[in-house]
Amino acid sequence: MPLFASQRAASNPAAGRAERPPDVNLQLPTLTGLRGVAALMVFTRHIYVDVEVLIPAIAVLGDIGYAGVTFFFILSGYVLAWSTGSGTDSAFWWRRFARIYPLYFVSVWIWLALAWHYEMFGEFGSKLFAILPALLLLQAWVPDQSIYFGWGGAVLWSLSCEAFFYLAFPIIYRRLAGRDTRGRLRAAAVVVLPTSLVAVTASFAGNQFDLAAYANPGLRIGEFVLGVALGLMAREGVRGSRRLRAALAVGTTAWITTAFLLGSDYGHRHGLIDSFLIPAFGALIFLIGTREADGGRIRVLGSRPVVYFGEISYAFYLVHPVALTIGVELGLFDVTTAARAGLGLFLCLVLATALAAVLHHSVERPARRLLMRRRLSRSRHRAAHRMLPFIPWQAPRAHRWPEPAIAGGGR
Question: Would you say 107 and 156 are in contact if contact means Cβ atoms under 8 Å apart?
Answer without folding.
Answer: yes
